Every structure is written in C-alpha cells, then in structure tokens.
Amino acid sequence: MTLFLVRHGRSAPRPGVPAHKWELDPVGFDEVWALRESGRLPDAAVWFCSPESKATATAQLLTEAEIGVVDALREHVRESGDWIDDFTGTVARAFAEPDSPAYDGWEPLAACRDRVVRAVRGILDVHRGEDVVLVGHGTAWTVLVAELTGREPDLARWRSLAMPDLIVVEA
C-alpha cells in the first residue's frame, strides 16, 4: 500500500483572513492539472481530503473518483488573519516547540500532529492494502510523514514544498 500526500494547489491569500478560509487561486489550476496528467498519482485509489476549500478544490481537479472529506485532515489551525512577515521562522518555532502555540491563535503543532496521525491511521486501517491519496496541507503532511517514518520533521522539505506538490510514503 502506498500513501500519496498531495499538498493543495496555489492559494489566493487574503490579508486579514485566516489561511484556512483562503480559496484555490484559479491562476494555479494548470499546475494542478499538470500533476494530474504527470502519471505520479495512482489510477486506482481511495481519495480523502481536508475540508478546507483549497484542498477540496484541488482534489476535485485531480480526480473523478469519490472524495471523502475528513475534518481532522485540516491544516495546522492558525486562527489569526495577521500577515506574519517571518512566517517561515514562526512555523520553525512551532516545530521546535510543538506543545506551545508559536503565535497568537495558533494551535500547538503537537495537537495538529495528533489529530492528523489519528485520522490517517484510521483511514489506513479501513483501506488496508489499497493505495490512498490524501489532499491537504504542507505542515500537516510534514508532521504526519515524521510520525509514520519515525524521523524528525523535515523542515527543509516543508520549505521546498510547491503548490501543488506530492509526497509518497510506502505504508
């Protein structure tokens, strides 16, 4: 069984609006379609996605298959709509101190990790032996991959993730 983790396509940031409310940017649709046509995603798989609209829209552009929406696959919750100049540094602090919010209104990263890992393990238990495609978010996938592989979170990989992007994990 292979787990395909898709990071959503390019989002349309709106200053003052929390990231989980941002939409998929139509300018980036071609990039999502290019991933679909790349042959890197399985023809036969079960599909699930985060409830955030940029993730659901990405999933709908990637497949004609039925897509289950799983609330627990949402991104690391960042309720603040503040524009953070050093966003990368703030996220790095979240990884360095996962039990504490890295910024006002942010979920501790450990809570995101626990929520996402629990949901994905449940999906993998039900779909044992099947390829699974999950469409979601970079930070959530980074903590998930670390947990599934027993390695430290790969911040360099997180920083290099494109929109969209694909991480493949042999489960």
TrEMBL record:
Pfam families: His_Phos_1. It comes from the Bacteria. CDD domains: HP_PGM_like. InterPro entries: His_Pase_superF_clade-1, His_PPase_superfam. This is Histidine phosphatase family protein.
